[in-house]
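In response to reviewer comment 3 from the previous cycle, which asked for concrete evidence that the modeling workflow produces usable outputs, we include below a single protein chain processed end to end. The sequence was submitted unchanged, and the resulting structure tokens are shown without manual editing.
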Amino acid sequence: MVLRWRHKDADPQATRLREQCERRVDALGLPAHTKLSVDDLCAHLSRGSGRPIQLLPCPLPLGSPDGLWVSTASTEYVVYEQRLAPVHQQQVILHELGHLICDHESSPVLTPEASRLLLPSLDPALIRRTLGREHARSWAETEAEYVGSLIGRRIGSWTADHVRPVPPAMQELVSRLGALDNPAFRGSNE
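The workflow returned the following structure tokens.
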């Protein structure tokens, strides 16, 4: 019996996605031959865009996305589930930064009411877009995941020893998000 392998033609759409993502990552001008940390990456992206990036570890409600990107008039926020394993936190952060790098748009996930609950000091009109994992098979989600994975190759190790503190100005937001995971709150909304 003779077995012959027939090479499958490369999927043109997958090839286009890979090449597009590689161009996006190359265009970032990340330092070559240097291991980066997530903080280094955020500082680099902030310098390039002129907009600060804040990483916010939060206890997100059960059933919610593991991360989301919130873009306001002045700052980019990457909110991620603080109870994930550190390596998973890193991938969630890189995925959300992938959305930012790819300049994805989406339909708003936060209603004005939710925006006032979570970010009462911000005018809901200032929140331009929020991205979460609501449609895992979309082009934007695949592109963000691919870009995050490409950048992940450049990131140094992420260990449990690296616990990101919550900035004092964001403590109240983190507390409100944590309250959403309260069983009494979930029970009243089911």
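The chain is about 40% helix and 10% strand. We consider this sufficient to address the reviewer's concern, and the full set will be provided in the supplementary archive.
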